[in-house]
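explain this.
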Amino acid sequence: MAALGVVAFSLTFPATAWGLEGFGPWSLVAVRSVLAAIVAGGCLLALRVPPPGRRHWAGLAVVAAGVVLGFPMLTTLALETSTTAHAAVVVGLLPLTTALFSALRVGTRPSRTFWAAAFAGAAVVIAFTVQQSGGALSSADAYLFGALLICAAGYTEGGRLARVMPGWQVIGWALVLCLPLTVPVAAVALSHEPVELTARGVTGLLWVAVGSQFLGLVVWYRGMAAVGIPKASQLQLAQPLLTLVWSVVLLGEHLTPAAPLTAAAVLVCIAVTQRARG
């Protein structure tokens, strides 16, 4: 399940780049959240799911701040000036950061082998993605690293909540919780930012709303609950490489011959983290 979430997430940056062709950054983020909340809320109503207990709302607020609002907004702003290859640095660091947040928040204690493989995998991904972007750091880095931290917190809290309620309900209630904010922001943003309803722009919006914001997080949180937050997070080491593949196919970006070697190294690191006790 977690692997399916990684595949869905790998399309987020290219889809966001498409969405920015038709929408402004604030419109794209707000509308994607509203659309995802409508889908999630419809599922919650159709299945007559009772609201979570009071003790869970604080955790849902962290999920909402991290994965519904913070990460999409910061990465969308970054992608206005950054390539998808450069933005993939964030995803390369996300597994390690999520494991660190998990150790602090949930009390998990992975083995030394796990940490060694996690650091090695993160280093490989960072080196590859920075090399792909020419080794230069852009002004978007502040957005990217801020997104990294807030998303790791949201993933960790969502993974913890997915132990006591289905993963789709975790992200569903987080999306619904944001509606009082995202609806008025969407209305204001759409009235102030230019909108051009192109095929690529609408497709990008629909994917980040339904594929990344809802369905991807549904299977992701379910996977985290099944195998544990640290191990599930390391599957995301493959996400930047998948994103780069989609960038070639969908955006016409070019990769160096180092991609297959990097992919092999990352897969080895993933295999080690999945076997390591944690």
